[in-house]
Structures are given as structure tokens and as C-alpha cells.
Specification:
Elements: E1 5-11, E2 14-21, E3 32-36, H1 46-50, E4 57-60, E5 69-70, H2 79-93, E6 96-101, H3 103-114, E7 119-125, H4 136-153, H5 155-166, H6 206-209, H7 215-220, E8 224-230, H8 237-248, E9 254-256, H9 274-285
Helix pairs in contact: 2-3, 4-5
Length: 286
């Protein structure tokens, strides 16, 4: 396994930490492969990066997350701002192949829409785009119910509500939120430590789930765009948003192994199938 080298890049209002595994410029002339998440930072890609040893792989922490600091006075996670951060990072790397997971896929959609020259192939894995769903109104209401549970009762209650939302099969109804699960049912804490800064639950990432993709720009981009989802997510929220986006772009959804975090190892408690996932990503990238 290639040992990562950590670097920093100063951008307006932030200092971005990123890790490089392999040589730059690349030894074989292929572009570096950039792996991005949100609100997940680079640590979530450690297993996957180690399985892609034939590529120079770059991971990064979005501004304000992980090791990346911000001095812009904001706590919002904005796809537009994060895409500009990535544009500056790619200026250091040269054009890349890009894999974006969850909110990272949303950032990638914005990047390709505004800077298509930065990316050769972009794999957008399960972007949580609530607005593309036929039940968008109910989806946004459910998101508000999750955030309300978090702000009223703390992290355990909020995460239990989030799990209920992301596990809901098919279209959401007004019934979601009527009886949210007990955190103890998932082994989550039932107490409240008073913190309210979680980037997933607090509402600071609403610009991610509320992002409206520029379909015309994506269709016109020189970038090859592949929308993907894990087979274990079938009929769940982020499978449905991915399928709706793929349909809007006139393509078939690319099916990957495992679940929303199918690239992850056991270090975060819900392991995917990282070896099969890496093989599928390599196949799709060509």
C-alpha cells in the first residue's frame, strides 16, 4: 500500500488538507483519481484508496471538515463553494478522474457544470438530490423532521431519525416522522450531550440536499458523467435520487456493489464490499 503524503492548499477563506498516494505527475500518464465525499472527509476513503494502488489517488477534507480549516465565518456546506475549492485543488494536480460519494457527488456535479475541463470521467455515486424526486415535497419534510429530532433531543435521536429516513423503501409519505424510532434500537445514545454542530443532522448541509443540478451544462460537458448507486440501496432514498438524475441525463443507472458506503472497510462499523467496489469502479473508469 502506498503511504499517503499530506499537503495543504490555501484557498480564499480556508486551508484545504489533501492526501496524495502515488507520484505526481503520474507515472503512466493517466490522470490522478480524486475521491471526494461530504460530509465525510478523506478518512472514509482509506480502504478504497488502498485497493486502487495502480492509480495515483488523491483524497481531501472539504473546508471546515476533518483537517481542513475555514476562516470565512460560515458553517454552511455549499456545493458551489466546495466546487471552487476543488477547482483550485485540481489546478495543482492537473485534470483528474473523479469519484464523488453522497454529498461529494453533489459537489462533483457542480464542478463538472462549471469547470468541465477539470474532469475527464466523473462517477457520481448516490447523490442525495431531494429535489429530483417525484416525492420531493415529502422528502424535504422528512429531512426537516430529522433535523427537528436532532435539535430537540440530541445526536442519538437525530441519527435514529436519519437512519429511518435513509432506510425508507419507495416514495415517502406524510406519515414519516409520526413515530420516529428509539435511538436505543440502533445502539445509539439516548442522552443528549448538548452539541448541535453535526454536519449531517444540523441543517448546515441543506444546500447539498437542496442542490438543483444544471442538466443542460452536464449534458454539454466534455466530461464523461456516470451516475451510480449501490445495489443494496435499491428503492431507498439515494438510489431513487440517483436513478432520477440518470434518467434526466438520458443514461442508465450504473449499478455498484453494496450500499451507500459500499467502498468502506470495517473501520466505521458498517462495512461495505470494498474489493468488489474497487473492481467495479476500475471497470467503469475504463
Amino acid at each position: 500500500m502506498t503511504t499517503p503524503t499530506t499537503r495543504t492548499l490555501d484557498v480564499p477563506g480556508a486551508s484545504i488538507a489533501y492526501d496524495v498516494r502515488g507520484p505526481l505527475p503520474t507515472a503512466d500518464g493517466r490522470p490522478a483519481l480524486l475521491l471526494i465525499g461530504q460530509p465525510m472527509d478523506a478518512s472514509g476513503f482509506a480502504t478504497l484508496a488502498g485497493l486502487l494502488a495502480d492509480r495515483t489517488v488523491v483524497t481531501y477534507d472539504p473546508r471546515g471538515l476533518g483537517r481542513s480549516t475555514r476562516s470565512d465565518g460560515s458553517t454552511e456546506n455549499s456545493p458551489q463553494q466546495q466546487a471552487e475549492d476543488l477547482h483550485r485543488l485540481i489546478g495543482e494536480l492537473g485534470p483528474v478522474d473523479l469519484f464523488g460519494s453522497s454529498g461529494g457527488a453533489v459537489t462533483g456535479l457542480q464542478l463538472v457544470s462549471t469547470h468541465p475541463e477539470d474532469v475527464l470521467t466523473f462517477v457520481a455515486h448516490e447523490p442525495p438530490l431531494l429535489g429530483v424526486l417525484p416525492d420531493a415535497e415529502q422528502a424535504f419534510a422528512a429531512e426537516r423532521a430529522v433535523q427537528q429530532a436532532y435539535h430537540q433531543r440530541g445526536w442519538g435521536a437525530g441519527m435514529a431519525a436519519f437512519i429511518a429516513l435513509t432506510s425508507w423503501p419507495g416514495e415517502l409519505t406524510a406519515a414519516f416522522g409520526d413515530q420516529l424510532p428509539d435511538p436505543a434500537a440502533f445502539g445509539l445514545p439516548t442522552g443528549d450531550d448538548g452539541s448541535r454542530g453535526d454536519p449531517l443532522l444540523s441543517g448546515v448541509s441543506n444546500a447539498v440536499t437542496g442542490y438543483v443540478p444544471d442538466l443542460a451544462a452536464l449534458r454539454a460537458a466534455s466530461t464523461r458523467v456516470v451516475v451510480a448507486a449501490g445495489i443494496e440501496s435499491k428503492d431507498l432514498l439515494t438510489w431513487r435520487s440517483s436513478a432520477a438524475l440518470a434518467d434526466a441525463l438520458g443514461q442508465e443507472l450504473s449499478v455498484f456493489p453494496s450500499h451507500h458506503g459500499g467502498f468502506s472497510g470495517p473501520e466505521f462499523g458498517h462495512a461495505g464490499q470494498p474489493e468488489a467496489f474497487a473492481a467495479r469502479l476500475t471497470e467503469v473508469l475504463g
